[in-house]
């Protein structure tokens, strides 16, 4: 075959590939030499530029080559940026800023212009570069350099066509009892490199103590805002939720939160852990404990509709207020159903359905992957180490309508690390549950080699 013949055959194959919408295989490095620069737009954010440099650094480590980061967009290269940086490279309808489900959407594709990592937001771009590196063999199985896998390939090429949006908008695994010394930074790196914790910034933890602390002078002037227990107002309990002044204070505190933290998507009005509910006649007349908690959440929801449309007030379905209320739940109330401490024989599925019947539009799951008081960090004792549990529940909760999943865990990667890693994959794409065996096989092969 002559050189001209080979060229014509190559062009014919290229045309056929483009016609079918298939990605091209794009050479990125050869013999330890970079073939393409990493390209950013001149007006791209610092966060995007940092992501581009990270990609260039890791491609360099993989290919044993130096990848430059430039802003000359007319060249062929590896394009890294948002849809605003490279509007001509985005495919399909442009996602709006108000669409929280689309914040993390990104496209990966290889074509005649090179390779593109284009995201709906800065966070989406960051997720996209880690996904591209994952497809090239990179892994961060557990926190720390020991569990980072950087492959080596001096003749590197990319063939990719992917449109990615996560199954869960919030995907957060956190240590309930903190971290061993020095482990915070490696853990945060692990989150980022595994596309966590998500694009939805949620506050949903026990909040009454914080509200009291931020407004202590007002509570001192108005002790009637506190729970009445055994005839005395006390700070060691919940609030007097029937009190209109207390409701107004909590509403004002929530509005102040969004003024101070405009990027947050929710403010919490989750009651304190434990009991201590007000015993005054007015609170009793509100109904069940769930009714009382929802009365306050509804008040904040109404204020958000007027002042901060698009923001949410969050709470749990948990413990004494795990059962659904008898009153409707306002539109901006986001409920996370706990998978433990439920009352009256309730099930997670039953509670999700029941709360939704009362009007909840946004629902999530509050999980317990490891609690040291329960499992003592022993192998096989925690949900986080039970791969079959993760395989079953993460897709199931999503099928039931959950779009947020936050899991209490521990800094205990020996017994549960593989489970945490598997969970990170499934939270991004619940369909990966079908590939559990392959995920485990990949972990054993890349982390242990022949010692697998």
Could you characterize what this model shows?
The protein has 452 residues and is α/β, with parallel strands linked by helices. It is built from 14 helices and 20 strands. The protein has a six-stranded mixed sheet, covered by helices on one side. It has a six-stranded parallel sheet with strand order 13-20-19-18-17-16. Helix 2 (46-63) packs parallel to helix 3 (122-135).
Protein traits:
20 strands, alpha/beta, 14 helices, 19% strand, disordered N terminus, six-stranded parallel sheet, 452 residues, six-stranded mixed sheet
Write a compact overview of the structure shown.
This protein has 452 residues and is α/β, with parallel strands linked by helices. It has helices at 3-19, 46-63, 122-135, 184-193, 208-214, 216-221, 244-260, 281-284, 289-307, 348-357, 372-375, 387-399, 413-428, 436-448, and strands at residues 26-27, 29-30, 33-34, 38-39, 69-70, 77-82, 106-111, 114-119, 139-140, 148-149, 157-158, 161-164, 170-175, 226-229, 232-239, 266-268, 312-317, 333-338, 362-368, 404-409.
């Amino acid at each position: 075959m002559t050189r001209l013949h080979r060229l014509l055959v190559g062009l014919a194959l290229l045309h056929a590939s483009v016609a079918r919408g298939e990605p091209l295989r794009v050479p990125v490095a050869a013999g330890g030499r970079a073939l393409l620069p990493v390209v950013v737009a001149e007006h791209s954010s610092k966060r995007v530029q940092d992501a581009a440099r990270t990609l260039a650094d890791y491609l360099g480590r993989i290919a044993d080559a130096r990848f430059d980061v430039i802003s000359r967009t007319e060249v062929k290269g590896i394009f890294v940026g948002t849809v605003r940086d490279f509007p001509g490279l985005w495919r399909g309808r442009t996602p709006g800023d108000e669409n929280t489900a689309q914040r993390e959407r990104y496209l990966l594709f290889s074509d005649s212009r090179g390779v593109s990592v284009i995201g709906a937001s800065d966070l989406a771009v960051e997720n996209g570069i880690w996904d591209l590196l994952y497809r090239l063999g990179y892994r961060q199985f557990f926190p720390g350099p020991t569990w980072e896998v950087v492959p080596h390939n001096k003749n590197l090429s990319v063939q990719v066509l992917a449109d990615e949006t996560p199954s869960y908008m919030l995907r957060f695994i956190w240590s309930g009892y903190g971290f061993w010394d020095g482990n915070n930074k490696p853990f945060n790196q692990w989150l980022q490199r595994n596309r966590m914790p998500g694009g939805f910034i949620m506050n949903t933890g026990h909040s009454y103590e914080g509200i009291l602390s931020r407004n202590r002078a007002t509570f001192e002037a108005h002790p009637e805002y506190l729970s009445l227990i055994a005839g005395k107002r006390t700070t060691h309990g919940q609030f007097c939720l029937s009190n209109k002044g207390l409701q107004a204070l909590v509403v004002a505190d929530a509005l102040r939160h969004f003024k101070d933290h405009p990027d947050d998507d929710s403010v919490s009005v989750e009651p304190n852990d434990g009991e201590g509910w007000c015993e005054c006649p007015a609170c009793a007349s509100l109904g069940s404990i769930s009714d009382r908690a929802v009365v306050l959440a509804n008040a904040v929801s109404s204020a958000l509709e007027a002042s901060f449309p698009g923001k949410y007030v969050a709470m749990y379905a948990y413990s004494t207020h795990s059962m659904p209320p008898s009153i409707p739940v306002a539109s901006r109330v986001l409920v996370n159903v706990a998978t433990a401490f439920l009352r009256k024989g309730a099930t997670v599925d039953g509670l999700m359905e029941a709360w939704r019947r009362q009007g909840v539009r946004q629902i999530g799951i509050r999980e317990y992957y490891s609690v040291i008081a329960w499992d003592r960090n022993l192998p096989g004792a925690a949900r986080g180490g039970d791969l079959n549990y993760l395989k079953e529940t993460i897709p199931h909760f999503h099928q039931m309508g959950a779009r947020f999943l936050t899991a209490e865990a521990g800094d205990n990667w020996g017994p549960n690390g593989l489970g945490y890693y598997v969970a990170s994959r499934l939270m991004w794409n619940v369909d990966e549950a079908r590939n559990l065996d392959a995920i485990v096989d990949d972990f054993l092969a890349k982390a242990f080699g022949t010692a697998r």
